[in-house]
Amino acid sequence: MADKKIDVVTGGNKGVSYGACRLLAEAGVRVVLTARDESRGSEAVDKLRSEGLDVHFHQLDITDSKSVHWLELHLAKDFNRLDILINNAAILTDRSLSSLTLDLDTLTRMMDTNMYGPLRVSQALVPLLEKSPAGRIVNVSSWFGSMAEMQGGGYAAYRMTKAALNALTQIMADDLRGTSVTVNAACPG
Ligand SMILES: NC(=O)c1ccc[n+]([C@@H]2O[C@H](COP(=O)([O-])OP(=O)(O)OC[C@H]3O[C@@H](n4cnc5c(N)ncnc54)[C@H](OP(=O)(O)O)[C@@H]3O)[C@@H](O)[C@H]2O)c1
């Protein structure tokens, strides 16, 4: 049990990452499923635990530095190490907005979650990931963030946030070169 890998997933209460939590736990990883809403997160964890899976809940709002700090303290105290961080949590509220109609409040909110969120969480947890023999950060991106996919209209802020997340992924991967931690992006769907 002591050798089990420890995985943190952000926004794990539903969608893509809820399935990822189940798959990782089934593969023998101890999963810390985090969610910004305590009751939604606990409900998701209860379901997975009722299937006999090693999944634990911790509250985390990735836009709140204090909340990120609490998670960091909890992980340090309980495990003193982290093996996998999946930066999954994101919002998409701009389906019909173009670069000409997009308001800066919408862009700021989406940046705060989709780009600053993964940055905040990664910066806080890299010291624990460095204690793993093979720490892994996976940023959940989208083909919408690919520079080759900027045509077609709509989703202006979402595209910008995911393009920025892709840049962060490459920059942090380079900054961690030579350590035990690798950083990659994955695009579901
Ligand atoms: N679904 C797709 O087809 C698709 C395709 C390409 C990329 N992606 C990417 O895959 C990831 C998951 O997508 P999804 O479709 O599964 O999304 P989703 O169903 O909308 O779930 C998003 C999750 O993020 C959480 N979240 C939002 N803001 C948060 C915050 N400030 N702090 C903590 N958690 C927060 C949500 O919590 P609440 O439940 O409290 O709102 C929810 O758990 C995203 O990064 C998305 O951009 C998805």
Characterization of the model:
The N and C termini lie far apart (33 Å). Helix content is 45%, strand content 16%. It is globular and about 50 Å long. The chain has a single domain (6-186), classed as NAD(P)-binding Rossmann-like Domain (Rossmann fold), CATH 3.40.50.720. With 189 residues, the chain is of the alpha/beta class. The protein has a six-stranded parallel sheet, with helices on both faces. The protein has five helices and six strands, in the order βαβαβαβαβαβ. The longest helix is centred in the middle third of the chain and has 26 residues, at 104-129. NADP nicotinamide-adenine-dinucleotide phosphate binds at residues 10-11, 13-17, 35-37, 40, 60-63, 88-91, 113, 140, 142, 187-189.
Query: What is the end-to-end distance?
Result: 33 Å
Series of H and E elements: EHEHEHEHEHE
pLDDT < 50 stretches: none
Derived structural class:
alpha/beta
The fraction of residues in strands falls at 15-25%
The gyration radius over C-alpha positions equals 16 Å
Q: Give the beta-strand count.
A: 6
* Strand order in the largest sheet: 3-2-1-4-5-6
Provide the residue-averaged pLDDT: 97
What is the CATH third-level topology name?
A: Rossmann fold
Bound ligands, each once: NADP nicotinamide-adenine-dinucleotide phosphate
The second-level CATH architecture is 3-Layer(aba) Sandwich
Query: What is the global morphology?
Result: globular
Question: CATH homologous superfamily?
Answer: NAD(P)-binding Rossmann-like Domain
- Estimate nothing, just give the exact number of structural domains: 1
Largest sheet, in brief, is:
6 strands, parallel
- Please identify the top-level CATH class: Alpha Beta
Amount of helix? 40-55%
Helix count?
5
